[in-house]
Amino acid sequence: MIRIFGLSILMLICIYLVYAYPQIAQKNTDLETNTTLLEDLESNQDILETIIPELEYLHEETLDKVVDGYIVETYREYEFYRDKAGNIIKQVPTSNYEYIRYKDY
């Protein structure tokens, strides 16, 4: 009897929260519409061809150093987004670095 009474109170509290705070329910519907938009974008093959990034390393001259008689060159990885003509649409730096060390004579 006490369990049924406790569950009833818990249910009433949940119902109260749904009616008292409708913005919580609104957030959930926004998430559902965002996922349907993503599914629509994924189905369009033309958009996917232009969004696939190419990874390239670029020399970051400002980060080069001389350490213990060696010149250390720093290269940073970038994601390049290109259109079908090969023009760069967007360039995004990643957190990956490569270092090349040369003896300083």
Task: Describe it.
- It is a single chain.
- By secondary structure, the chain is of the alpha+beta class.
- It has three helices and four strands.
- Strands 1, 2, 3 and 4 form a four-stranded antiparallel β-sheet that branches.
- It is elongated.
- The model has no long low-confidence stretch (mean pLDDT 76).
Topology pattern, helix = H, strand = E: HHHEEEE
What would you report as the Rg, rounded to the nearest angstrom?
Answer: 27 Å
Q: How many discrete domains?
A: 2
The count of DSSP E runs of length 2 or more, i.e. the number of strands, is: 4
The proportion of residues forming helix, as a percent range, comes to 40-55%
CA-based shape: elongated
Average pLDDT works out at 76
Return the structural class: alpha+beta
State the major sheet. Answer: 4 strands, antiparallel
- Which runs of at least 5 residues are low in confidence (pLDDT < 50)? none
Approximate strand percentage: 35-45%
Distance between the termini: 89 Å
Q: Count of DSSP helices? A: 3
Give me a quick take on this structure.
This protein has 105 residues and is α+β, with helices and mostly antiparallel strands. It has helices spanning 2-20, 22-43, 45-51; strands spanning 53-59, 65-67, 70-82, 88-103. It is built from 3 helices and 4 strands; from the N terminus they run αααββββ.
